[in-house]
Design a protein that fits this description.
The protein is α+β, with helices and mostly antiparallel strands. It has helices spanning 10-18, 28-47, 52-59, 78-91, 106-120, 124-141, 148-151, 156-172, 177-188, 204-224, 240-245, 253-256, 280-291, 311-314, 318-322, 327-330, 334-344, 354-357, 360-366, 414-427, 432-444, and strands spanning 64-68, 75-76, 299-306, 369-373, 385-391, 396-401. The chain folds into two domains: 2-271 and 424-455, 2-methylcitrate dehydratase PrpD (Orthogonal Bundle), CATH 1.10.4100.10; 277-401, 2-methylcitrate dehydratase PrpD (60s Ribosomal Protein L30, Chain: A, 2-Layer Sandwich). The protein contains 21 helices and six strands. The longest helix has 21 residues, at 204-224. The mean pLDDT is 96. Pfam families: MmgE_PrpD_C, MmgE_PrpD_N. This is 2-methylcitrate dehydratase.
Length: 457
Amino acid sequence: MASRLPKVSVAETLAEKIVTLGPGALPAATMRKCDDLLIDVVGLCVTARNRDYVESALAGCDDDGPCTAIGHKRTLNAAGAAFVNGTAAHGEDFDDTFEGGPVHAGAVIVPAVLAACERHNPDGRMALIGIAAGTEVLCRLSLVVPKAVHKAGFHPTAIFGAMGAAAGVGAALGLNARQIVDALGIAGSMAGGIIEYLAEGAWTKRLHAGWAAQSGIRAALLARGGFVGPRTVFEGVHGLFHGFAHTTNGDYDALTGDFGTRWVTDTLAFKPYPCGTMAQPYIDCARRLAARGIQPEDVTEIVCEVAEGTVHRLWEPLADKQRPPNGYAAKFAVPYLLATGFVHGGVGLGAFTEDAIGDPRVLALAAKVKFVIDPDNPYPSNYTGHIRATLADGSVVEDRQPHLRGGAQEPLTRQDVIDKFLLNAEHGGWSAAQGDATLKLMARLFDGRIDLSSLRG
């Protein structure tokens, strides 16, 4: 077997490019996107801070230390803070998305790098480098074998998140190339995350981002301490892609080829609605149909054209997607989501309470929603929406959304990101003064010392 090992592995090529990054190396657009990620993630941590799953995650930690769990008085060690913050940031499914993946980068990388730097390297300039490097690695990994990890039953954010967090923390802490290779190799044995949460709306998807974030910290610290990981963690016959994508044949050039000269991070999308990403264009279509004056009771049937790769997560079993068993399951049920958008004019954080998911007008419309597979759908390169509704008078109305709003083709502005933060902060119980003070802190966070103490409590 040793004779078949490459002279220079994928991880070694990647690590050499990561260590060349330093203050001043990032394009303005990439730095701006990292600023947006910081604002978005902190707001998401605040909005979820009193939710039952965050309280459970915090209660499950017995590793107190000096690091900030955003919105909580209790402090934890770096790994614990990354876990709680990552779980909170991903928990409402309102976090960013990389359309090519799909993966969620901010909820993994920002908590990992902030916690690591708060404890080990308070230089904000290196935190910025870490967030950029980790986000780029996570997103690019999802392009190596598109759709294969989901198809194999795993959550790509969880799998690639551990690797991205290891790279991001390694960059932020100034690890050398050999140590970053070891960190990636170690993280490969920490990666994991099945998607069985879809069966009944269990909470485990929520912890995937937090688990990946804390895994990246532990892997980087182990590597810094001299622990050795496999350098062929990606392409090896027993490597990451063999284990989670069932193949070692992939486009590894998508990961390393122009790393550091072209930044896919710049194309990250921010969600308009707190639910599954691929459902969002369908909600937009439903809202536009309702805006024509069509009443839900006038609709006899809705047929949606969908991508085959989304069916097992967002459309089946159809009866459960029409009438989800709980609020979290509803976030991944397109019939319920588009019906909510149609009936109420949008989908907000309040759409997932027990009362909301029992709304008889929403459920009556959701029961009329069906799907057909469109073999030409561009997913995962682009997320589209389509609704064809048959009305009681026999007429047919149709609407299409050609891309994800908030994505590369229609990005949110900085003010949009700030407005979302302020709404999330208010929803999480923070005063307007706390929200404004936090925005001021984040505006200068990467320019000086990482100090998150004002985000506690």
